[in-house]
Amino acid sequence: MKRSRSSTAQQARAPVDTSSNVTPLSSVPMYSQIREIIRRQVLDGTYAPHSQVPSESQMMEAFGVSRITVRQALADLQREGLIFKVAGKGSFVAKPKAFQSLSRLQGFGEAMSSAGYETFSQVLSARRVKASEVVARRLQLKPGSTVFEIQRLRHLNREPISVDVSYFRLPLGERLAREDLPARDIFVILENDYGMHLTHAELQIEAISADETLARHLRTAEASPLLRIERLTHADEQPVDFEFLYYRGDAFQYRLRIDRT
Question: Collapsing DSSP states into helix, strand and coil, what is residue 221?
Answer without folding.
Answer: coil
